[in-house]
Amino acid sequence: MPRTKKITTKERGKRKSTCESLLKGKLFEIIIIQLLEKSWFSQNVYSTQLTQNRKKLHWSWATYDHDYCWALSIWIPFLNPIMLVWEAKFHKVALKTAREFLGAYTDLSQYTKINTKAWWASRYNKLYEPRYNYSPVMFSYKWFLDSAKWLLYTHGINFISYNESKIFKDLEDKYSEILKLFKYENFKPWDMKKFFDKANSVNDLSSIDTRLVKQGYSEKLAEISDYITNIRSYIGVLDNRFTVNILTLRNKEEKRLFEFGKHSSLYYAWKWRFEIRTKKWKTVKAEFYLPESFFEKYYKNVVNVRKKSEEKITQWRLKRSDYIDPLSHFCKSLSVVITHWELVDVIWRQIDQESRDRIIDTLEEDDEPENDE
C-alpha cells in the first residue's frame, strides 16, 4: 500500500496563500457581476464570436479567455448593441496587465464579422447575426499604477477602481471573515475548478462542499448576500468623459437623488471620492470615486494653465471675458442609467453651481502648500 505523502508546514502555508488569493479574486468578480446586473447589464449575449462553451472569444488567430462578456440591455438608435468585455482584478493593476488586456481587445475588435469571399449563402447568413460595439473595461478593488492608467486612458479603455469606496471597505471586512472559514488544507485542484465554473452569485457559494468550510459559513454568507442586495449600483458618465460607478444603500427615490440643487448636492470628500448628499440634512446618499493619482495630475495641469492664462491677461491686457477657465467644464454634468420596475431611463443632470463652486474651493484648499511652523 503506497504511503501518503506528508504535507509540510511550508507547503500548507503556500497552498493556503494561493487558495486565499484565488478566492479573493473570485469574490470580487461575483460582487462586480451583481453590481452590473443592478445597472441593467445582461449575461445573455448571443454572438458567433463566442466559443461553444461560451467561455472564450474568437479573435483573428486564436481564442481569448476573457473574464466575462456582457451586453447592455438598452439599444441605442444608429448603434449596434454594446458588448461589455471586462476583467476584474482584486490586486493592483500594473502596466503588464493593462498591456495584455489592450492587446487582447485590439485583436477582438479586428475579428472578421462578414467574410466577403465565402460562399454566397454563408456570406448573407452572417447579416442576420447580431453585431456589437465592443466596450472594454477593467475593474480593480485596489488601484491602477500610473503607467497602467495612462495606457488605458490613451487607448480609450475604461477603468474603475474601488480603492477608496466606503461600501467596498465594509464588504472587504465581511468577506475577510468568510475567508477565515475555508478549510484550505482540504482544497484540491478540481475543487477550485468547480468553485470557479459554477459560482456567479453569492447564493451560488452556499452549495460548496461542506468538507471545505467550517461551522458558521452559511450565516456569514447570508450577511454578505443581504448587504449586496441592499446596494444600488448606477453606471454614470461624468462630464460626458469619465465613466463612474455610483453606489448607494437602500435608495428608493432614484430620480430625486440626481436632482442636483433641488434635492441633493455634490461634495468632494477626499482623495477624489465624491459624495451625493441630501440638500436639507446633508446626509450621504451615494458615492463614486475617480482614480486618485490620475486626477491629481489632471488638476495640477489645470492649475498651471489657469496661472499662465492669468499672466497673459495681465501682460497683454486681454479682456477677462475672453478667458475660458479650464475648470469650467469640470463636474458640470452627470448622465446615469436608472431602472424603475421594468422601465429604464437614461437621465442627464446638470450639477448645480453651488456644488461646483464648493468642489473647486475644496480642491484649491487641498492644493495650497502647508506652512511649516
Write up this protein:
The chain is of the alpha+beta class and 373 residues long. It folds into 2 domains: 9-229, Trna Endonuclease, Chain: A, domain 1 (3-Layer(aba) Sandwich); 231-292 and 327-367, no CATH class. It is 38% helix and 22% strand. The chain is built from 10 helices and 14 strands. The protein has helices at 9-38, 95-109, 120-125, 146-154, 166-179, 189-198, 217-229, 254-257, 292-316, 353-367, and strands at residues 41-42, 57-58, 63-64, 68-72, 82-89, 133-140, 158-161, 231-238, 242-249, 264-270, 273-278, 284-289, 333-340, 343-350. A 5-stranded mixed beta sheet has the order 1-4-5-6-7, with helices on both faces. A 4-stranded antiparallel beta sheet has the order 9-8-13-14. A 3-stranded antiparallel beta sheet has the order 10-11-12. Strand 11 (273-278) and strand 12 form a beta hairpin. The mean pLDDT is 78.
Largest sheet: 5 strands, mixed
Supply the number of helical segments.
10
How much of the sequence lies in strands comes to 15-25%
> What is the SS-derived class?
alpha+beta
Poorly predicted residue ranges:
none
CATH class category of the largest domain: Alpha Beta
The CATH architecture term of the largest domain is 3-Layer(aba) Sandwich
Q: How far apart, in Å, are the first and last alpha carbons?
A: 78 Å
Question: What's the Cα radius of gyration?
Answer: 24 Å
Question: Which features does this protein show?
Answer:
five-stranded mixed sheet; alpha+beta; Trna Endonuclease, Chain: A, domain 1; 2 domains; 373 residues; 22% strand; 38% helix; 10 helices; four-stranded antiparallel sheet; 14 strands
